[in-house]
Amino acid sequence: MKTKTRKQDATRLQELALKMDAAAMRMVRGRPAIDVALGEIFLRMAEGGHIDELCFSKKTDFANEALGIPPRTFFSLSELASGLRERPLLKQAVLSGEVSAEKARTVMKLAVGEDEGAWVAAAVELTGKDLKEAVRKRSGAEEEGEPWRMRTIRYRMTVGQQDRLDYAHSLAKEIVGYDAPGWKLTEAIAREWLARSRVDGGGVDGGGTKSGNVKEPVWLEEMTRRSDEVARQLRAVFEAGEVVEQSCCGVTDENALGLLAQAKRLLERRERFDEPLGRVLLAITRDRLWWWLAFDSFGDYCRERLGISRSTARQRIRLERRLVKLPALREAMKAGRITYSKALLISRDATPLDVDQRIREAASTTWQQVNERAEREEREAERANEEIEVEGPEPSVDVVTRAVRDARRQILALGEEKVTEGEAMAHIADHFVKVYEVPLGRAEWRNEWQKSVLVRHGGLCAVPGCTRAARDNHHITFRSKNGPDEPFNCLAVCWCHHKRCIHKGLLLVRGRGGEYLVWKFVDATLTPWAEFVTVGDDDVRVVGVGLDGVGTDAVDRAVPFAMA
Q1: Alpha-carbon distance 221 to 35, whole Å?
Q2: Which H or E run contains 60?
Q3: Backbone angles phi, psi at 389, to 5 degrees
Q4: What's the rounded Cα separation, in Å, for the pair 129 and 304?
Q5: Is the pTM of this model over 0.85?
Q6: In which band, very low, low, confident or very high, does the pLDDT at 238 lie, cut at 50, 70 and 90?
Q7: Quick one: which of 421, 430, 437 has its CA closest to 387?
Q8: 343 to each of 10, 178, 346, 368, 459, how far by Cα in Å?
């Protein structure tokens, strides 16, 4: 009886695997054409300067805010479209679904001229692993190392120890940059400790680096070089989207808003494939159906059968699990109230009790503000659990690990009791504060209020949705029009938004800095396409979308746009 039951279960799973596989294949079959078309639009927008016209200083901000997709998707599709422009055979194979995007990227460098047809045939016949090996042998180059992986470490730290680390982070921002991610700040603090160890020969109470120059400490050059190397490897697929060869394209004269509308329509069609695909992938991984389809792992199934990366599939599965528990979030995505990028953030910590409120808030503000809230809640949860998490590129996390190990060893060598990793991290932070607190405090500013304006928005550009560090001081009422040199008339903005957007008339801002600001975005034809208000320092709201569902146009009329 048991044998019969097992055979029945095996038959059922085999049939289920075939059904789920067929469903998944139907959903991914339409993706290549959409992906190539999207990549072409992204390239044309970058080449024609349309992203700048829409007042985005970074392509990552454009992806998150205007398109509502992860930046990696934007750059990946741009790279694919750029490579297929002069490879008609490979492009046709991708559009027909015979060759996946991942395989196309693998053979891109070799599939040129007379060799294109042979490599397209190889991409059709060979598995992904075999194809990479064939490319490596044909190119005659050493096998490239894997891109830097993201790594996570956790330390137990009391609230007091975390306060010491947070203060060190605030000082590190003034050296590394206000827009630096958390892992880079922690790496800077760790590198200062290791640099002091090399210069002073150790000791918890050492005097720090001997450079005497706050702007260029001993460790900064090494950290910058290493961080640039890490960024290049992490963003290997980004580079083709960032730098487009001029030989394969010309500057287009298409309208920026028209291209953006086309991209959004294609993204809607793409989401119709991706949303049900998440459900199918969840069933395949939950019941290990890939095994019944003769694949060694779920990752192999995604790459070889579906032509998508394992990380993309995992992201969809995680979101699908949360959408099952949060049906209101699924409905908001279908209705277009919430973008995919915002849904990923909301799904982290939302509960059935507060998901509606989170959706309303996310719909009425920028992705940047939703992300800041998610990160703030994550930090608060870590403090409540008395632990910290450092997630970053593997080489940077290795630096932190090495510094903590070195600090514990030195503290023990001084005859003190053995300390925990969290206390060692706090010692490292104390050392950083001892070295830089006084010099940074003595930094000369022409006026103290200028520094307060610079850090008013956390040191970032005050333009809604911008994640660049603020560099310039903009006068709301121009000085040429007798605008006062006072905090209420000044904004800290990045160079791009200051020179390329505000002073070219693409971005209009009125109000009082730190109190109430109205931002109006226009394109090259002076057609308004977005409007925001900033209340206080950084509470950004979309005009026309209120937290309670009531439009904010009435609020906007109460504070005229022309106010000085």
Answers
A1: 39
A2: helix 59-61
A3: -125, 130
A4: 9
A5: no
A6: very low
A7: 421
A8: 37, 26, 5, 13, 27
